[in-house]
Amino acid sequence: MTGSGNRAESGSIADDLFKLRAGDAIEAARDALGGVYDPELGLDLVSLGLVYDVREEDGRLVVEMTLTTVGCPASESLPDMATAAVEEALGGAVAVEVRVVWDPPWDPSMLSETAATALGFRIR
Fold it and tell me: Which parts of the chain fold into alpha helices (H)?
């Protein structure tokens, strides 16, 4: 998914309007994703272990994330929420693409310790 209010796709993150360094943009994106909550579980995407990668690719910021299951009730809304949060955090200065991936499949071992405790999973 690509947001609608983004700049032209040419150039790299280092060339964007605000001269963001790729590392700064990636960090800002990860922070923003930590503020996106799964409406069913009440925990954020990062704590749930749903964010696999955030990187610069071909002049855009790419987020690879997954969902807890293929039939996840939030399968349509979570990627849109993630896109909106990252676009807002970057001020629309960088094109954002959120990709839902299924490999590796999500499992409870990907939860942060806090999320695992909140959901009643035993921590090893």
Answer: 22-33, 77-89, 113-118
Would you write out the chain's pLDDT as a tens digit for each of its 124 residues? 444 444 444 455 445 434 456 678 899 999 999 999 999 899 999 999 999 999 999 889 999 999 998 888 888 899 999 999 999 999 988 899 999 999 999 999 999 999 999 999 887 6
| Domain regions of the chain by residue span | 13-118
pTM: 0.80
Instruction: Please give the CATH superfamily to which domain 13-118 belongs.
Output: Fe-S cluster assembly (FSCA) (3.30.300.130)
d(CA 40, CA 10): 38
